[in-house]
Design brief:
The chain is α+β, with helices and mostly antiparallel strands. It contains five helices and nine strands.
Length: about 260
């Protein structure tokens, strides 16, 4: 058996998140496992780099799996093509890499990057993947609040309740709004790990800052409160994308 990293992207609008769950049909993991098992003619069990919620998208998601197939790398482009022919249009496989037996898609990830897209003008060709927010927003003030995130590690105030995580600590190294087009803004956030619902809760609270409903000082107090009820509502899932993930070079098998 050899271990591989699978790089893929998916449109989350048609799925109940990444992870297989009891009594929750149509997850990305479920569809992938079924199709890969069929093509490779063996039971394939995937472990993802994280678990995206219902409706959240991924441009660069990594999952690992073990397989007896001897030529997955030698005939990589053939296998990528084969996988994509049986997968729905909402999922695309982009790469297969051989890794060491102990490599883990989730635990060995050292950095993850999310983008969140916001629009200030209704657009039927963009709104499926952005959050249309009506009214004025002060992005300079929102960025001042976002900078505060880099000073803290405990983000309980932005985490879903009753999760199975052992710690709510994360190290955020970037959090920034910038203009990405006419009437369009993109929030980039980079950290070693993220809590469930964390990015959407942060975005929802930053929009409250931008609308002058709370101050930058209030935003700091929300973080320090370590209380989810103090923060804003989650921003919509459809505008959130996992776009980047990094691993140490040592986990990859060299040719």
């Amino acid at each position: 058996m050899s271990r591989y990293f699978l790089t893929l992207s998916y449109n989350g609008s048609q799925f109940n998140g990444w992870q297989i769950q009891d009594n929750t049909p149509s997850t990305v993991e479920q569809v992938l496992e079924e199709k890969l098992s069929m093509i490779l003619k063996e039971q394939i069990d995937l472990i993802g780099c994280g678990r995206t919620d219902t409706g959240v998208n991924a441009k660069n998601f990594v999952a690992h799996f073990d397989s007896r197939c001897a030529d997955l790398i030698e005939n990589k482009h053939h296998w990528i093509y084969k996988f994509n022919t049986v997968l729905p249009p909402s999922i695309a496989v982009h790469n297969i890499q051989k890794v060491k037996d102990e490599a883990h898609a989730r635990f060995h990830a050292t950095q993850r990057v999310y983008y969140y897209y916001l629009s200030q003008q209704k657009n039927p060709f963009r709104d499926n993947f952005s959050w249309y927010v009506y009214g004025d927003l002060d992005f300079d003030v929102m960025n001042k609040a976002a900078e505060i995130l880099l000073e803290y590690e405990d983000f309980t105030s932005f985490s879903k309740l009753h999760t199975q995580t052992h710690t709510n600590n994360c190290k955020i190294t970037q959090a920034l709004w910038h203009k990405s087009g006419e009437h369009e803004w993109r929030f980039s956030i980079k950290a070693d790990r993220f809590l469930r619902g964390m990015v959407r809760a942060i975005v929802g609270t930053l929009v409250m800052v931008g609308k002058n409903k709370i101050t930058v000082s209030d935003f700091r107090k929300i973080i320090e409160a370590k209380d989810r009820s103090k923060a804003g509502n989650n921003a919509p899932a459809n505008a959130l994308f996992l776009v980047g993930i990094k691993y140490p070079k040592e986990i990859y098998e060299t040719a």
